[in-house]
Amino acid sequence: MIRAKRHRTADAMCVAQAAPAGGARRWWGRGCGFALGVLVSFASGAEAQTLLPVPSGQPVHLSDVLLDENPGELWVRFRFVAPKIGPANGQIGHDVASIDMDHLCQTLAVPYVSEHRLEPARVVISLSDRELEFGHAAPEATQYFEAYRLEGARCIWEGL
Question: Which Pfam families match (predicted)?
Answer without folding.
Answer: DUF6497 (PF20107)
